[in-house]
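quick one
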Amino acid sequence: MSFETISVIGLGYIGLPTAAMFASRKKKVIGVDVNQHAVDTINQGKIHIVEPDLDMIVHAAVTEGYLKAVTTPEPADAFLIAVPTPFKPCNEGEIPEPDLGYIESACNAIAPVLKKGDLVILESTSPVGATEQVAQWLATARADLSFPQDAGDEADVNVAHCPERVLPGHVVRELVENDRVIGGMSPRCSTRSVELYKTFVQGDCVITNARTAEMAKLTENSCRDVQIAFANELSLICDKLDINVWELISLANRHPRINILQPGPGVGGHCIAVDPWFIVSKTPIEAQIIHTARKVNDSKPGWVVDKTKMAIVDFLQENSDKTAKEITIACYGLAFKPDIDDLRESPAMQIVHEIASFHTGKVIAVEPNIHQLPSSLEQVELQSFDVAKSTADIHVMLVDHKEFKAESLNSAYLVDTKGIW
Ligand code: SAJ
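structure w/ SAJ:
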């Protein structure tokens, strides 16, 4: 059965580009989101998120009539669930548990419009077992239909997991070019999912089962987290031993089988700092390295704040006529990684926020990718690089944006978390 109408539930950083790609291949796409503002914006042919080239594709898809957004699901032949999977609130030191509440709501929303022959795909990054849980929620809501956990290949509704793996900032290209892991709950669930993705995916669609597909996504991001933790741990060791960690890593990387990543102010974003917890919370005894890597990376912002405090002490010792209140601190970069404007889950934001909360003098932030500071940094001044460089006493380099790499800054009071100056 072919897919005439495709519905995407959750029109965020993954759902909207995915909906737009199907629509660009002239499929009828119904995007569903609970956020009325997002729905209205998309129906005007505009986008509510920042992602290169996406605006053009959405605009064309909406004006040509292939994409529309709604708040309540309508019947379709395939449903892709791309909603967030955050943590449940927990106390400091506890292992965060994934919150599948948005996925459950999405299942309850699509259940009334499901029909025999439909395909449901979970795209949200999920703990192992979530796809089986989706099938169970749908089966409970629709006792009149059969699902793969009971009927296998004969099921009325097929269910699969197909995690997204695109890099923010390169989503449009990677959606088309990346290979996809397809984890069906039965062989037929997988082959139908491949048929659907082949509408726009040029990469390979590799078939496995649902649990392996869930774990594959978590493994990719945990692997990167562990590798960054290794680099961050080296940066602490080298600081103690008076060794330049950047030089050290570039020397070690000359070995043909070594490829160490770069240390930084910590690990941010919505995936790498989150997904490893989905493994740790399921298998806390076994997941020792993955758990430790999370702790190493999460502790790095605090270490940067401590280094800044030490720079203040050094400055006051050398300039005994000054008080802390007279010291200006400039922080370079707020985004969660270079050359993007996304400040959410950013270690740089956390560091600047902490510096601004304890420092009695002026705090300046330089962030070439934004025009206004978020309200959480109301005591901080947004300034140009030149003003910060010439007026600040202490400099804290946090994000290696291309604008900063093109500059140089020499100061005895420099905390350089990216090793660019
Ligand atoms: N970082 C370092 N040192 C490095 C590389 C990165 O400190 O050498 C930091 C960055 O500054 C940033 C964080 O790690 O704070 C994450 O950045 P990233 O570029 O590694 O990854 P994301 O979060 O933008 O996207 C990741 C990607 N996953 C992998 O590369 C394995 C992407 O392919 C996934 O689709 C995405 O997570 C996701 O949605 O899961």
